[in-house]
């Protein structure tokens, strides 16, 4: 029987309850970066992070969105334990790190990092806003992306931090751009 389910990157952006759908690409603690490859219907190994680095949180994408870089929006997800590539979760947005990334060719492009909490998380259930995060956490996340990009021949520059409403507006804009 043929599979009639849509590809993961074309699932609905929002669930019936209004929470965000997120697909995990790279689990927390992984030194390997994975990305969903629609052409193959699976996850593809992209690269190994520089020596000693690993993803500080689960990293994924929001289906049926198109960011300024042409890809689905990226999101860091706070969860009790690492998920796995392809895991679909319901997520509550808590904020965004609005950022630009300079590619190897010198061109700057927007590459925001949304921050979310798994709806069914226990450890992070109290987090509803960036101000609920432990002190210094966002500085560490920004430093991770700056260092990772620098060692990969790119530059990452934080523009500003936004609240859950700013994040939701970016998601809606990216969902409209996908349509």
Automatic annotation (TrEMBL):
* Top-level EC class as recorded in UniProt: hydrolase
Q: State if ATP-binding is listed as a keyword.
A: no
Q: Name one GO biological process term.
A: phosphate-containing compound metabolic process
Question: Which species is this record about?
Answer: Methylobacterium dankookense
Q: Which gene encodes it?
A: ppa_1
Q: Note the Pfam families from the entry.
A: Pyrophosphatase (PF00719)
**Keyword Metal-binding belongs to the record:** yes
The record's annotation in PANTHER family points to:
INORGANIC PYROPHOSPHATASE
Supply one GO CC term from the record: cytoplasm
Q: Which UniProt keywords apply?
A: Hydrolase, Magnesium, Metal-binding
What does the record give as cofactor? Mg(2+)
> Recorded E.C. number(s)?
3.6.1.1
Q: Which GO terms describe its molecular function?
A: inorganic diphosphate phosphatase activity; magnesium ion binding
Query: What is the protein named?
Result: inorganic diphosphatase
